[in-house]
Design a protein that fits this description.
Blueprint: H1 7-14, H2 36-44, E1 52-58, E2 60-61, E3 73-74, H3 78-99, E4 104-112, H4 120-133, E5 135-146, H5 153-162, E6 166-172, H6 176-182, H7 188-201, E7 205-212, H8 219-230, E8 236-241, H9 263-280, E9 284-286, E10 290-292, H10 297-304, E11 308-310, E12 313-315, E13 322-325, E14 330-333, E15 336-340, H11 344-352, E16 358-363, H12 366-381, E17 383-385, H13 386-392, H14 398-403, H15 407-412, E18 416-418, E19 422-425, H16 433-438, H17 442-446
Parallel strand pairs: 1-4, 1-13, 2-3, 4-5, 5-6, 6-7, 7-8
Antiparallel strand pairs: 8-10, 9-10, 11-12, 14-15, 15-16, 17-19, 18-19
Helix pairs in contact: 3-4, 3-11, 4-5, 8-9
Length: 458
Amino acid sequence: MDKPMTDAELIARYHGRVPRYTSYPTAPHFHPGIGAETYAQWLAELPPDAAVSLYIHVPFCDRLCLYCGCNTTVVRNDRPKRAYAVWLSRELDLLADLIGRRAIVTQVHWGGGTPTAMPEDCLTGIMDHVRKRFHLRADAEVAIEIDPTSLTPDCLDALRLMGVNRASLGVQDFDEAVQEAIGRHQSFEETAAAAQALRGLGVTSLNLDLIYGLPHQTTESVARTARQALALKADRAAVFGYAHVPWMKKHQSLIPEAALPGGEARLAQERMIRQVLEHEGGYIPVGLDHYALPGDAMAAAVQEKALHRNFQGYTTDATPVLLGLGASSIGALPQGYVQNATGVPAYEAAINEGRLPVARGVALSADDRLRRAVIERIMCDLELDIPALAKTMGSDPAPLLEDAVPLSGFAADGLVEWDGKRVRVTERGRPFVRNVAALFDVYLKQANAATPRHSAAV
């Protein structure tokens, strides 16, 4: 029997840069050939009974966190935020007019940036406008991302009026040395108070975001943070590997690279957090990097193989239409993807001219749809019967099976089980599931390898 590969050997072999696969094709392959006219046509083609989900992007924060890879800027003046709220309402009008009816909404997700950086009356006003122009289902999920240090009593009142029933608190790490290095000071007490206040508000699903791979982190320090997180009794936890991409996010260059853990250390940190959450907290692993308590809807989706993946990560939302609102937001429709102008000035200009602020996108081919389904199932279920999936889509599995040939090597390394048709990612292989999915990404194979576009695999 061959000796199992060490972590160092696995990292050396698989620690490349691969997409996170929140879409397929991935965002670097969107192009300006898909614009407002195409998007308007796609909206008009939606079936009369098509339900939609809404993603509302707020590109503002009250402070700059050096690790952040989101599209956001620090803005402390309310004037540009109030102007932005007006543009969001106008974009809602544009979308509703093109759809031609009050479409049913199953989910509203506020992301950023920091959505709660907006003035409270702007938050409630936009939600009121959603209810005016769309039919928000009585059981709709209304989710929002929150910086615990900015959760004031007035903000809580606004969240109650908005009908927020799911919230995500950014934790990252409770260690003071780590917080100092990433420019995000946040005590456990502040976070616990925010969690308690949200529960009192009626939030039935609470998520915590944790990050490994940050400067000065060790396996011992991330274990302490994970154990503190357990005390908050969140329904879900998302555990992300820090993506150090200073060529894309210039502020990340302020992070001391010498203090960043290497690939082997990152893998050890990921495993330590997983061990604490699973074995001490009773959480069920969800896909690559999420965890859920057994009674949570996401845990049920894992068991039923009904989990999905979109630009916010793993989701239980199966609605086939996601409308993105705000600067840089991405929408997903049966026909393809669209992305709004990234910069606020370009977004504002389009809205003021009465046109959709789409800057780029991609139309899906039949092959794209097939490979998107393959990649989503691998990312969500960690297993797949390739011929069976191809058959359900009326496609020839031969090209996919040809792409899957390298899985024999993954199997030899203990990362998957593979019989030539069916693949199952092992527990040791879970951190490398993006590498497995990447085998079926034809765009990645065509990309210029000299241009770093993605984060490290682990």
